[in-house]
Design goal:
Blueprint (H helix, E strand, L loop, with lengths): L2 H22 L8 E7 L2 E6 L3 E6 H35 L29 H6 L2
Antiparallel strand pairs: 1-2, 2-3
Length: 128
């Protein structure tokens, strides 16, 4: 076997390995980024242990309306969830001067919409 044939065989093996690796992992979850920068028409997102996502800025610009829309909707859902949790906990706070916690059923104000602390917040979230 000549050196050219060995190189061609090695290239074929590496291409096969690459195809297998791509087939095994179809999704990458990015919890948070540690670097963001643009260069030569590409947006670079650094995440994880020295991993990078590179996005063509022309395509990213075209995708931004959808990305922004979906991020706002998902963030609104999460904000409503956390707000509901906070309101439920506020309704179960310890009554001043008492040694016991008051249950929601025992409170005069037990409707999260009536809590003045969050006045206007629910309206803003519901509009999203």
């Amino acid at each position: 076997m000549t050196s050219t044939e060995r190189l061609q065989q090695k290239i074929t093996e590496l291409e096969g390995d690459l195809l297998e690796a791509r087939a095994e992992k179809k999704h990458t979850y990015i919890h948070e980024t540690h670097h963001l920068y643009c260069s030569n028409g590409e947006m670079h997102f650094g995440f994880g242990d020295d991993k990078w996502l590179v996005y063509n800025t022309d395509q990213l610009f075209k995708d931004l309306p959808f990305i922004i829309n979906q991020v706002i909707k998902e963030n609104g859902k999460m904000q409503r969830h956390y707000l509901d949790q906070i309101q439920k906990e506020l309704l179960n706070i310890k009554v001043e001067g008492e040694n016991e916690y008051m249950d929601i059923e025992d409170q005069v104000v037990n409707d999260p919409e009536e809590i003045p602390l969050f006045e206007g917040t629910l309206d803003k979230l519901n509009k999203l």
